[in-house]
């Protein structure tokens, strides 16, 4: 390790996240202009402006900085990652999917705008995210931009979010879910966009293949750990999130780590993954500190 645990422990993560969230918020604010059809626009903005952690945009900016790039280059891609994420959340909450009434402390998109508009808002955000990068990215060679577009398209489609969601749906209510299947779902549903954030941030900065591969492995491990802890927090019920009633659609029967290994076994696995993720980026030294602190936080958060 080239960074001591002490330096990471002393890093002011809340202040860092707060400042990065403010940067992302200000750019998202101007990313989506009111336009016709108004109802569709309102539905897109309702979810995009809602109160999320902005984890994926922040990781994209961090990946760019760590690779020696000006994070300004990555702002449009960072915004696009949040649009893609929000699109997936809107669709995920639909009655045909997870059937959730609340998201980010507010009524779910389909509860406010109806299922048809919610479905279309997700579609429109998906398309707009990609267009947004092409229209707004400055000073990045076209070849890098093509790679970025490919990474995002790949991590959303059948090899990414959508594929993970499809397997998740197929597993609903089944009793014979194995570890391989749970990990398949986690690496795609949660890992794909976290991976895309790191890889696109680094790509925009012109990072070499080894850097991109390290950041990608870091992201995949942190992504799975993040989902494991998320599921543990659901089980132990320390979270007081609006609408998080586990019995509504039998969420306890979902394919999760705690279901296979219990709370302690799951937290042990999350800890292993986080430690291993930190090892991937430790060689970058001081510039890796925010990412090391974020990885650590995945395992220690309580809500
Ligand atoms: C239309 C792009 C698109 C996809 C359709 C519905 C679907 C396919 C995929 C669902 C993917 C999904 C909902 C994954 C869950 C990922 C996850 C961990 C969400 C919670 O992320 P946080 O904690 O949430 O970062 P906030 O609200 O803070 O952003």
Description:
The structure is a single chain. The protein is an all-alpha fold. The protein has a single domain, classed as Farnesyl Diphosphate Synthase (Orthogonal Bundle). It is 69% helix and 1% strand. The chain contains 14 helices and two strands. The protein has a two-stranded antiparallel ribbon with strand order 1-2. Strand 1 and strand 2 form a beta hairpin. Helix 4 runs parallel beside helix 11 and helix 5 packs antiparallel against helix 11. It is globular, with a radius of gyration of 19 Å. About 2% of the residues have low confidence. The chain binds geranylgeranyl diphosphate. Geranylgeranyl diphosphate binds next to helix 5, helix 7 and helix 9.
Layout of helices and strands:
Layout: H1 5-10, H2 13-29, H3 38-48, H4 55-66, H5 75-93, E1 102-103, E2 106-107, H6 109-113, H7 115-136, H8 142-156, H9 161-171, H10 179-189, H11 191-204, H12 209-236, H13 257-281, H14 289-300
Antiparallel strand pairs: 1-2
Helix pairs in contact: 3-7, 4-5, 4-11, 5-7, 5-11, 8-11, 9-10, 11-12, 12-13, 13-14
Bound molecules: geranylgeranyl diphosphate.
InterPro entries: Isoprenoid_synthase_dom_sf, Polyprenyl_synt, Polyprenyl_synt_CS, Prenyl_diphosphate_synthase
Protein name: Polyprenyl synthetase family protein
Organism: Streptomyces lunalinharesii
């Amino acid at each position: 390790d080239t960074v001591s645990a002490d330096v990471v422990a002393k890093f002011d993560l809340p202040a860092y996240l707060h400042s990065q969230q403010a940067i992302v918020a200000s750019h998202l604010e101007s990313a989506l202009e009111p336009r016709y059809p108004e109802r569709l626009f309102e539905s897109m903005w309702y979810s995009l402006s809602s109160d999320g952690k902005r984890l994926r945009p922040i990781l994209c900016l961090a990946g760019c900085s760590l690779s020696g790039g000006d994070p300004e280059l990555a702002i449009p891609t960072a915004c696009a990652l949040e649009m893609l994420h929000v699109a997936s959340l809107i669709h995920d909450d639909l009655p045909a999917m997870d059937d959730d009434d609340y998201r980010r402390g507010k009524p779910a998109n389909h509860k406010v705008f109806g299922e048809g508009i919610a479905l279309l808002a997700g579609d429109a955000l998906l398309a707009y995210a990609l267009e947004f990068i092409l229209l707004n990215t400055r000073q990045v060679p076209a070849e890098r931009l093509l790679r970025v577009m490919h990474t995002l398209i790949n991590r959303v489609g059948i090899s990414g979010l959508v594929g993970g969601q499809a397997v998740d749906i197929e597993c609903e209510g089944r009793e014979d879910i194995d570890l391989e299947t749970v990990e398949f779902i986690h690496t795609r549903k949660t890992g794909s966009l976290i991976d895309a954030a790191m890889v696109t941030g680094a790509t925009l900065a012109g990072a070499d293949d080894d850097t991109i591969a390290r950041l990608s492995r870091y992201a995949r491990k942190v992504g799975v750990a993040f989902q494991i802890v998320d599921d543990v927090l659901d089980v132990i019920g320390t979270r007081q999130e609006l609408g998080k009633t586990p019995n509504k659609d039998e969420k306890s029967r979902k394919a999760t780590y705690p279901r296979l290994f219990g709370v302690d076994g799951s937290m042990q696995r999350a800890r292993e993954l986080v430690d291993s993720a930190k090892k991937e980026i430790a060689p970058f030294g001081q510039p890796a500190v925010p990412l090391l602190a974020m990885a650590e936080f995945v395992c220690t958060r309580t809500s």
